[in-house]
Write a structure and sequence with these properties.
With about 110 residues, the protein is mainly beta. The protein has one domain. It is about 15% helix and about 35% strand. A hairpin with a 3-residue loop joins strand 3 and strand 4. The chain is globular.
Length: about 110
């Protein structure tokens, strides 16, 4: 990574999965701190130095197993009540491995 993106920083969740399901790569003009890290999500405090703005970002890679994915939703609900998530702009994004209807499901 350091050869492809010199000076950039990165974080991942390999401590929870040998596959490292979640990665974040950021430019040095962005200040990132890990707030909460689990198998299906990582939550960061992100400060954009060039415009003096802060927000909380949660990156998600939901399990394909419904039972395990329910844990993700419980974790997100818990996070919504904790500082600094509560009272801050918060964006949650990623792959939830959730479909609205069975017709959206891939059989591949």
């Amino acid at each position: 990574i350091s050869r492809a993106f010199p000076g950039w920083h990165y974080d991942c969740n390999y401590e929870f999965s040998d596959l490292g399901k979640i990665w974040l790569l950021w430019h040095p003009t962005v200040c990132v701190s890990v707030l909460h890290k689990l198998l299906q999500s990582i939550t960061y405090s992100v400060r954009l130095l060039f415009i003096s703005t802060s927000l909380v970002v949660t990156l998600v890679y939901g399990s394909t197993c419904r039972k395990i994915r329910r844990e993700l939703w419980a974790e997100l609900c818990f996070l919504s009540y904790t500082a600094p998530v509560r009272g801050s702009p918060w964006v949650v994004l990623g792959d939830f491995n959730q479909v609205l209807s069975a017709s959206e499901h891939s059989t591949a």
